[in-house]
Every structure is written in structure tokens, then in C-alpha cells.
Queue: 2 jobs
Job 1
Amino acid sequence: MKFTVAPSILAADFACLTKEIEKIHKIPNSQVHLDIMDGHFVPNISIGPCIVKNLRKTTNLPFDAHLMIDNPENFFSQFKDAGANYITFHIEQTRDPIPLINKIKELGIKPGIAIKPSTNLDEIEYLLPQIDVLLIMSVEPGFSGQKFINSSLKKIEKAQRIKESKRLNFQISVDGGINDKTAEAVIKAGADILVMGNYFFKNPFELVKSEIEKLREK
Ligand code: DX5
Ligand code: ZN
């Protein structure tokens, strides 16, 4: 099975992020998932562009910035300058997403749309031809370490069907509760990118690495 691994550093040890990112380097076909939270859009605060910019000096891995913030458009250029390769914003608080998608593209980076578990795919289907990533949240945004919401599988399958039938190129990223038990079904449903927080950083690295290898061999 083919997929990209995107460890979310929200679950990493923030006192030694450089070392934590070295683990991501040891996984082929991987990228760094950055959960950006403002305490308004979600009830948690994480990191901002300043930390991202410093991390950029430590790695060439792609940075995938998942913005869980109000007025995300106010921060696009700061995250671009900090080294983000993908910027994903949530549809729920965005009235007019097309100018936002265009703004990200004009900055020379790849736009993504994120949807919460309660957001229906129909609401964003018209945007799919214009984005690089559809991020399907399989937990409520805000915290790592939550349980995978099983009904997300249907949404992933539906996104995959739309992608195939309309011959679109966006990648399906799935975020929340991915571990050795949930990953296979998520990939089979159509995910291209697996975001992994707790599972990746809170288990022995060699074990996680070999589980990822096993999945890729299937
Ligand atoms: C939640 C974040 C996720 C989270 C994933 O708001 O978007 O990226 O860190 O963590 P796990 O894999 O532990 O659910
Ligand atoms: Zn995320």
C-alpha cells in the first residue's frame, strides 16, 4: 500500500523538536504536519510561525501547516515565509474560500481544505478541483490522542469516489486517531496521507517504523 506519513509534532516532545524531527527523516515518503491552534477556533494553543521558521532550518522535509485558527488568511504569508509547503485551512469559519485558495497559490504554495467530522463533503465538493489536499478530520480538532471516529471511513471513501470519477488530483489526508489498528482501513478507504500524532511520537520509534513498513508491504 502506498501512502505518505505526516507525523504531527503536536504529540512530540517540544523540548527537543530537532531530535523528534530526525525520527521523521528516518521514514521514507514523509512530511511534517504542523498543527497551528489559536485558542479560538479550537480550545487549545500550539505553535506559530516563529517556531515553524526555526524548525525550517533543521530539515528539508515538506511542511504541511494545518491552520486551526480564526481568520487564517491573515497568516498565510507568515507561514509561507516560515517555510510551509502546504497550507490547509478549515472551511467551517470561511465564508468565501476561493479567494483564500487563490491567495495561497499566489504565494507559490499548495492549498488544502480541512473539514471537521461534522462537515459534509457536499459543502466543499465544488472546491476539490482547485486544491492540492483535502484534509478529513477523523477526530474533533484541538488535541492529539483522541479516538478515531469510525464514520470518517465513509467520508474518505466518498472523497475517493469523487476524485476518481472526476479525475481530480488532490490528495486525501486523514487526521486524528491513526494508529496500527486504524491505518489499514483508512488507506483502503482512499487516504494518501496519514497524519499521526500520538501513535508516532508516544510509542517506541523502531516499533512504529516497522509497523509502517509492514503496511507499505501489504
Ligand atoms: C488535532 C490535530 C491532529 C492531531 C493528531 O487537532 O489536527 O493533527 O495532532 O493526533 P493523533 O494522531 O494523536 O490523533
Ligand atoms: Zn492536524
Job 2
Amino acid sequence: MTTKKLYIKTYGCQMNVYDSARMADVLAPLGYAPTEVPEQADLILLNTCHIREKASEKVFSEVGRLRPLKGLAEADGRRLLIAVAGCVAQAEGEEIQRRAPAVDIVLGPQTYHRLPELVRRAEGGERGRGLVDTDFPVESKFDFLPEEAAGQGPAAFLSVQEGCDKFCSFCVVPYTRGAEASRPAARVIEEARRLVAGGAVEITLLGQNVNAYHGEAPASSSSGAGVGDTWSLARLIRALAEIEGLERIRYTTSHPRDMADDLIAAHAEVPALMPYLHLPVQAGSDRILAAMNRKHDAEAYRRLVGRLREARPDLAVSGDFIVGFPGERDRDFAETLRLVSDVGYAQAYSFKYSPRPGTPAAGTGEQVPEPVKAERLAMLQQLLDEQQIAFNRATVGRRLPVLLERAGRREGQLAGRSPYMQSVAVEAPPRLLGRIAEIEILEARPNGVTGRVVTLDTDRAPDRPRNPQPEGRAPAPAA
Ligand code: 5AD
Ligand code: SF4
């Protein structure tokens, strides 16, 4: 089989990064090998994101930039195919085909298992509407995708849940990714084992609303599962924690409403579950939270964080925020700042509200003027940056187990993550790559910390717990 080259450009969230890897897996049997150079590609795949601003315009301009490569490939006696996948494809499939004839294939996030078939047909010269696949098929793509490629490295991702039924009024996800669905627990465990056998030390469980996970229970589960029984995310995490060699488990992204008691308890009881939680709140004003259809108020979120910190006192909390949601007044925004001060975030992401076509909030009257959004965003980001640096500073002098995941930016350095998701840079020999080392934190930087290697975690006596927690508790970040 001749080798063809596949160039993938990924936009947006971790779920898309994961999906891109799976699409590369599914195309390997057709002879496609990855390339970093679009000029060499026989197939260019844009895996798109629709969550915020100008998503589709970005796709159209990217296709415009890539189009000349088709001519170059032809002059070279090759044929270049362009495919658009992901959430923009789902939302605007037909429009893409109409406005960008250079695009050969359009497919939504639920039909990646059909990609080889579409590519084969496009290679055979087929064009047109038949190569747009934005179905929400009854079959799950996961039943048809090949096994997880095991070579993700020490910190791997594993998709366990997809879609969302929450319908926050600003968000396209329920429309582009479809209804909530969970993968059966037995499949997840099997894939986790394979990832660990392939060198993973940490696994992050992915889902748009991951803590709503309710996957089919394994047939042989000790709880005596019957047909139709499901496992919660907490139950799944407990089972994964049993896998020899899997030292760290994380999950993202969670909705406050699905933070079940057993999941909070898991933060207290499962040492492999890392003390870091991404728990978006979006806003601090009850009026705005209601208009966003978040289904909880600010006090419920504060209480929830309180309970989580009771379970795991050193929990580092991260969040997402939207400023300038329709109807947000100064006093609403002040409530967001107050909530941020009360909670104390180790990390956060904040965005200006962007009306997404087809979402309920996009049509509502009182849109906030752009300069007001910009001013609020700057204020919020300043507070969040201060909290992040305070969190990082408070770890200086401590010894933390750090998973060294990759080469650092500077010669002789490795980079990794602390249990709190801080990025850590250290001088370390390449042989420590993929290992957990005890690192003394020396210096706080705005986006991470630097440290020095104290000992290799895996050098310790075998009777020590397999999954040591950092000593003491992380200081509460300054407000
Ligand atoms: N405008 C701005 N931010 C948005 N997000 C989702 N939809 C929008 C929108 N229409 C943000 C939310 C979400 C994160 C992934 O993206 O904060 O948690
Ligand atoms: Fe979007 Fe998250 Fe709300 Fe679901 S819970 S609609 S993914 S913001």
C-alpha cells in the first residue's frame, strides 16, 4: 500500500485533540501517515470548534489559505483532499459545501467512524452532498472506531462521555455534539489498561459533561450488576484506580449540578484521583445564572466547593467564566468578582460572551456593548491572574510529585505537571521522562513553577503507598 500523508489541524477543546488522534487511527489502515507539513499532505483535515467567536469565518479563511495547495499537488501528480470535521462542520455542513467548494468532505463529531468510507469515495472521484455526513447516527462511533492507539505517552486522554443535555442558553455543545452518552465501563477499563501498558502513568477522563457519566456496568461487576445497571463516574474512577501502574486520574469538564456525593467522596478516598478540579461556574450573579439556564445559584456553587474542600482540603479549583452575557449589569459583574474572591481559583479561563447562532441567548435583546465586555474581561482576568500566581507562590518550598511528561523548553529541562495541574519545569536527565519525581518547587512564574529534582518517586521502598499525596495542604490561594 502506498503511504499517503495526513495533515490535521485541531481547534478548540481537549475533546477535539482526542478526536483528531482517533481520526488519524481510523485512517491508518487506508495508508495515511501523519505529517506536520501541509504542503506534503494528500489529505488535510480541519477539526473545528464552534464554541466562540468567528468560528466558521476562521474555517473559511483557513480553507482559502489551503486551496492553492490543491493546485500544487496536482502539478505534482497528486490529488489533495480537504475535509472539515468537528463542531463547525456539524453546525454549518451545507453552508461549508456551498461556500467552499475546495472542501471535499464534511463530517460532524458523531460520525468519525464513517470517515474512511467518505475518504475512499472522495479518492474515487465522488463529489457533492453525499460527502457531507452530519448525522447523529443510532450506532455509537465508539463501537466502530479502532482500539485506542496506546502511544499517547505518560499523560493520556480517554474519552468516556460525550454530548450534553444541560442546554445552557449560550452554548452550542448540545446542538453540535448531541445528547449525552456514556461509554460502557468495561470498554473504558479495557482502554485504560491498554494505555497504561503503552506507558501512560496518568489518564484524564474526557467528556463535555463528564461527571454526568452513567456508563453501562460491566457484566461481572462485584455489585452484582444486572442488565441496565450503570456506573457513576465515581464508581468508574474507583475501578480505574485498581489498575497497576496507573498513578494518576483526572477528569474534565464537570457541571456543578452533577457533582454527586459519591464523586465528592472519591476525592477524599481515592489517592490516585488528583487534587484538581475544573468546575466552571460562568458567572456569580443569580439573575445571570438563571438566564444562562445553569440550574444552580452562586450559593450552591460556593457550598459545593466548600464540601469538596472538606473532602480534599488541598483541592485546586479551576473554572470558566463568561463576561457580558446579555443583560449583565455592573452589579451582576461585581457578583462574579465576589464569587471569584470567595472561591480562590488556582487556574481559570474567561471569555467575552459571543452570541452563537441558534442558541437561546443569541436572540435576546440586551446585548452588552463590546467595550464593556472588554473592560469586564480585563478586570476579571487581572483578579484570576493574581489568584493563579498566589497559588503558585504558595507552593514554593514544597516538595510535590511531578509527572515529567515531555522535554522542557530549554536544553536539559523536562516539563511536567504537579498534582494541582501546575506546569513545572526542572533540570532533569532524559531518562526521567515518563516518571513521577519528587520536585522541590523553587520559583513561581505566572503560568507555572520551576523546581529541582529531589528523588524519583518510583525509587522509594515498595511498601510505601503507590500513590503518595503531597504532604500538607496547599495553601488557599489569596483572594
Ligand atoms: N460565549 C463565550 N464563552 C462561551 N463558552 C461556551 N459558550 C460560550 C459563548 N457563547 C465558554 C464557557 C464554557 C467554555 C468551554 O467556553 O465558559 O465553559
Ligand atoms: Fe455547554 Fe457545558 Fe452548559 Fe453543556 S453544561 S450546555 S457543554 S456550557
